[in-house]
Write a structure and sequence with these properties.
The chain has helices at 2-6, 9-21, 35-40, 43-53, 69-80, 132-144, 150-158, 191-207, 212-229, 233-245, 252-261, 265-275; strands spanning 103-110, 115-122, 162-168, 177-185, 281-289. The protein has 307 residues and is α+β, with helices and mostly antiparallel strands. The longest helix has 18 residues, at 212-229. It is globular.
Length: 307
């Protein structure tokens, strides 16, 4: 925790951001835990946690590659079969209430440059019948899909108001998540100027349909990224395992490219109008503070923004 959060200005900002964006859902808590939790933790707590969750009925086993299925199943029975079965006692996760007003927060930490995190509550693939997650993936590509995307073309190279902007959206979550932007203003520009510029680009995508050429480029880019990812045997397994673990069929992967290519400009606009609105927005600003100890700069604007 000290390495990844307390000694990282960006890590501290992200933790503060999540605790601001969520009010009741467990996503508001860091996975490693708050320091007060770690300070009180005992070995008995760890054993109880392990016994509660590390059970065959709560595991997903994925094997990919040049294997013989019957041999894999035999090995699974040999090594996992003797482990006693037990029911997993899950607590009902409270549903995060709809956000009705912008939430703002700030955090002061030793850092060289300011940065901010902006996020909007959005659905995940667990609403398998909805086109919104696919439209949001395309929208992410429109705004931040390489050198031809709008943020890079307009705010980084064009107006030179941003040193960097990253967009984050992970639809493979068990519960609704966040569509996020992490941004660092360029020298001689302020956080407020960059925030206004990003909101201006969001308003543009809400008010104007994405052009056919831009839509085709982004969809080809998103689809190609999925296909290239499957060159990795490990990543194939990870994608399948993530879907199964959150309660979806791994065969959803086979539909992914077709669903992306089916996204229309109207669906992208609808998703932007539905979710990327200021009453659904959370913004956390990192205010750099001088100090003897200078953690790594937050100026990359990237990093650990998923969960």
């Amino acid at each position: 925790r000290r390495l990844r959060t307390d000694d990282s200005p960006e890590g501290l900002a992200h933790e503060h951001f999540m605790a601001t964006a969520y009010t009741v859902h467990a996503y508001k808590n860091p996975i490693i835990g708050w320091m007060r939790d770690l300070e009180k933790m005992t070995t008995a707590d760890l054993r109880a946690w392990y016994k509660q969750w590390y059970l065959p009925g709560n595991a997903t086993l994925v094997v990919v590659g040049d294997v013989t299925p019957n041999e894999v199943f035999a090995l699974a029975r040999k090594y996992f079969g003797p482990i006693p079965a037990a029911s997993v006692q899950r607590k009902r996760q409270p549903v995060e209430p709809s956000q009705v007003a912008t939430r703002r927060s700030s955090i002061k930490a030793p850092a060289e440059v300011p940065m901010f995190l902006m996020g909007f509550h959005v659905p995940s693939f667990t609403r398998a019948d909805s086109p919104d997650p696919y439209a949001l993936l395309v929208l992410s590509g429109v705004l931040d899909g390489g050198h031809s995307a709008r943020f890079e073309r307009t705010l980084v190279r064009g107006r030179e108001i941003a040193a960097g902007i990253n967009t984050g959206y992970s639809p493979t979550a068990r519960h609704p998540g966040l569509f996020t932007f992490s941004a660092t203003p360029a020298k001689k520009h302020t956080v407020q100027e960059l925030e206004a510029a990003i909101l201006g680009e969001i308003r543009r995508v809400r008010n104007e349909l994405v052009s056919a050429e831009e839509l085709a480029r982004v969809k080809a880019q998103v689809a190609a990224g999925s296909v290239f990812a499957r060159d990795s045997v490990f990543y194939q397994a990870m994608q399948m395992g993530m879907l199964e673990t959150v309660g979806l069929d791994w065969r959803l992967l086979d539909q992914y490219e077709a669903r992306i290519r089916a996204v229309t400009a109207e669906q992208v606009q609808v998703a932007a109008r539905r979710y990327l609105i200021e009453s659904n927005m959370t913004l956390t600003v990192l205010e750099p503070q001088p100090g003897q100890r200078q953690p790594r700069a937050a100026g990359s604007a990237g990093g650990r923004h998923g969960h």
